[in-house]
Amino acid sequence: MVALSGQPATGAAYARRACHRWSYHSQGVGRPRYGRESAAILVGMDTPAELGEFLRTRRARLKPEDVGLVSYGAQRRVPGLRREELAQLAGVSAAYYARLEQGQSGNASEAVLDALARALRLSGDEHSHLRNLARPGRAKRRPPDRAVPVRPGTKQLIDAMDGVPAIVLDRRSDVLAWNPLGHALVGGHLDFAAPERHTERPNLQRLLFLDPHTRELYPLWDEEAKRAVSSLRLMAGRCPDDRRLAELVGELLMKSPEFAALWQRHPVRNCVSGVKSLHHPLVGPMELSFETLRMPDESGQWALMYSAERDSPAEAGLSLLRTLVEAHPHPHPHPADASAGIGPGQGDGQAPAVGEARTESRPPRSRARTSLRPGSLPKHVARPDSGTNPP
Q1: Residues near 361 by beta carbon (within 8 Å), at least 6 away in sequence
Q2: What predicted TM-score, i.e. pTM, was given to this entire model?
Q3: Alpha carbons 1 and 3: distance in angstroms, whole number
Q4: Phi and psi dihedrals of 387, rounded to 5?
């Protein structure tokens, strides 16, 4: 979203414009309701508008000298390349490129899109995203409104991985299943059986931006938030008519100014592996590698798994967490721990005034957390920083 002055709109202004028709049921909690427009248009997933926004953000990040153009020092009204300069680099007319930024891309050829990707120096993920936005007819057909159940074999597989935190998610990052160690790592304050209930199914994106417990889990929260929005942006381009995905984006735009600020920057990256820093409330800091595996079917499901380097403090931390899980299998959190963002339509039901900081009091700790204090464990269980490894 670009303001009339030519400067990028603030996150608050972006949320106002993208969600100007967003509203909640009269009871204040629940799914959003819409007018005639589709959910995608309401929450900023209208494909033509998204194409123009994406091209503008990528054009703004390049300077003339970055692409070999001579800058004569005249003050520029907007950051980055001018439309005419980018059109010259891509080998198209300025008028044609202007139509692309206005969302009129129905006849854009593969050659033109490839030339734009080269001129804008797009990454592989960004190039794929450009094609999805410019030619939405090639995007995947609309997914079903309800998530496809996890196959029994998949559930058995993650349950057998008792030393590896594993979570099965859908394309919207709804948690469909997790093994005990995966639950203890990222959702120990939630009910273990929540993924089995459609209306209470946790969503990792919602938890990251709206749940204070999850925010505390990531000491590098800004980095984790950017990674999450980058993946969500890529998925929105692939599935532009996924209504539930649109609902999730709209909810986060309204409730989280931080999400809105990141969303308007249009980051795009397929984050399939990497390293995450976590500070677990029970076992302390850990540096864990993560890998994702896509299911070989049309369900859109994928598995997220964590591992630690051999003989590292993180490996000791996971071993301790596994011991805690075995000592307290499937604990149920206290009802007071049902904080904002746990499942679809749950939370305080009140979006903060756009532009205001969201103020939240930390929910009371659950019985599950209280009963799993490392100090209350048998003496043979050692903390990762105690100098000895747990058995």
Answers
A1: none
A2: 0.73
A3: 7
A4: 95, -10
